[in-house]
Amino acid sequence: MPRYLVLANQTASSPELTSAVRKMVEKKADTEFVLLVPATPVEDLLDWQDGDNETIAKRTAQAAKEHLEGIGAKVVRTEVGDPSPIKAIEDELQRHQEKYDGIVISTLPLQRSRWVALDQPRRIERRFKLPVTHVVGHSVTMTREELINGLNEDLNLELEGLLRGVYHAAAGRGMLGHELRELLKKELPSELDHATFLADKIVALGGEVRIRPSLPAELGAARELLQENIAGERKIISNYAKRIDQASEFGDKGLVIRLENMLASETDHLEQLERLGR
Ligand SMILES: [Fe+2]
Fold first, then answer.
1. 32-38 and 3-7: which strand pairing?
2. Ligand 1 centroid to 48 CA: how many Å?
């Protein structure tokens, strides 16, 4: 029966690896798999996990084994190996002296994977003289496309805030209208900064800037204007909180910090608006 060594860590339960394994089982139902999980250092993992390298790798291996068995694959053994994939494979081959028909290497996408960056799949093929199948776990990470879509949504909210601010600052009436005007005018430059930053960032990520803000509602009493501005701030704050998670998952620490600063500035702004309403 065919026997394959599957090297995976963060993508061990990814749909991509699952589908690759399923295809192999469909071809030959008695195919056996040994799952080897390198004990990747905790700080190199995408998401924070409790425990040391070994414990996390063991947990990942167990979960992946159950997952692959769930689709009918015969996982005969799981092993936790050296953090270096090459060393992990070498140890495994020496220790067990089993014959493998090939190695399946499952990694994160190029930009996120240290293994791919080191050209591991090809090095492994040359070194162990076994056919290597490289499976990329795209769906494990936040995609660039999703992040760009989110940033475009934020950009439009900022532009809506700008349009609303210009309009309300000019047209608000009465005592409250006057106070609102002062506050909104003061915030306009920072909203413009936010919008400019987001548009630049979208382009830097290789995306397309899609400007489609909705126009401010028809002018109401000052108190209604205040409520519209408060609602707008709440919306953008909740958007930035989401975006910070996505940017962090995407691995862009600089963007995380910029978004955090923007979230802080919007929170100050919201609090000032709320005070005005009291
Ligand atoms: Fe803003």
1. parallel
2. 30
pLDDT of residue 115: 62
What's the 2 CA to ligand 1 centre distance in angstroms? 58
Q: Give yes or no for residue 209 having a pLDDT over 90.
A: yes
- Ligand 1: distance of its center to the CA of 272 in Å? 14
Burial class (CB in 10 A: 0-12, 13-18, 19+), 5: buried
Distance (angstroms) between ligand 1 centre and the Cα of 206 equals: 22
Query: 148-185 b/e with 16+ CB inside 10 Å = b?
Result: bebbbbbbbbbbbbbebbebbbeebeeebbebbbebbe
Q: How far is the CA of 104 from the centre of ligand 1 (A)?
A: 47
Domains of the chain from N-terminus onward: 3-140 (3.40.50.620), 144-276 (1.20.1260.10)
